[in-house]
């Protein structure tokens, strides 16, 4: 059995998701950043609260999995999720991940306080979406083709005005779905270069290590086995699209047969099941730790 640990990004946050997180982790966030996570609907309108909340939840999940003697063959984070993936693979410490995500979320919020975001289009090819984007993209209303979550699920990023125009064109082209996402910044586009510059300066001062397992990179979908590749992903992740579909193809090529999605979501488990029906899947959102342990041990024994 080869298990892939999946760490989702923003979008699945919800009030109460931190209720079982150990107090020392919540206290650590406050000590390191000055931010008190309040875990309610109002808090999750704020990018800093969202990002730190999801990170600390995933750090808690990593602790839980380690407590039952589990370790991954590979890790895959989506956007924000790369930082928990880097912790799980031994590249960066909990403390440094928290401090880095705090800086990341601050800079993202400062860079585009209003008028920018992301949208999702289902049912059209990436080529088809890119052709629509080219019709709308301009200096006044910038919009870019962004993440590739599956063969027919493409994300766009940029100004809300530009995104809405592309979504309208997608609907006319018979897209199954064309919607704005709950992300208040134009992530995974060239518009985020200023954030990457700050992260490069930040990570130059952090001690990092080679990954103890395979790390699947967002920026090209490839398997990374050295610290330089993971560091590049942590710095430049927001500038590049997330090639999730490629990441999952590579996972299969590596012999991965089991996926485990950490909280707070289950979207990527559904994508895995759709793409690879024979994969065994676990979502921590829906299962107790002892049940997860039972299944993983059973599958290990064959």
From TrEMBL:
Top-rank taxon, per record: Bacteria
Which Pfam families is this protein grouped with?
Acyl_transf_1
- Gene Ontology CC annotation, any one: cytosol
EC number(s) reported in the record: 2.3.1.39
Task: Give the matching InterPro entries.
Answer: Ac_transferase_dom_sf (IPR001227), Acyl_transferase_dom (IPR014043), Acyl_Trfase/lysoPLipase (IPR016035), Mal-CoA-ACP_Trans/PKS_FabD (IPR050858), Malonyl_transacylase_ACP-bd (IPR016036)
Recorded hits in SUPFAM superfamilies, A to Z, give: FabD/lysophospholipase-like (SSF52151), Probable ACP-binding domain of malonyl-CoA ACP transacylase (SSF55048)
Which reaction does this chain catalyze? holo-[ACP] + malonyl-CoA = malonyl-[ACP] + CoA
Biological process according to GO? fatty acid biosynthetic process
**GO MF annotations, alphabetized:** [acyl-carrier-protein] S-malonyltransferase activity
- Report keywords, A-Z: Acyltransferase, Transferase
Show where the Malonyl-CoA:ACP transacylase (MAT) domain sits.
6-286
Query: Mind telling me which SMART domains this protein's record contains?
Result: PKS_AT (SM00827)
Tell me what this protein is called: [acyl-carrier-protein] S-malonyltransferase
The beginning of the lineage is: Bacteria, Bacillati, Bacillota, Bacilli, Lactobacillales
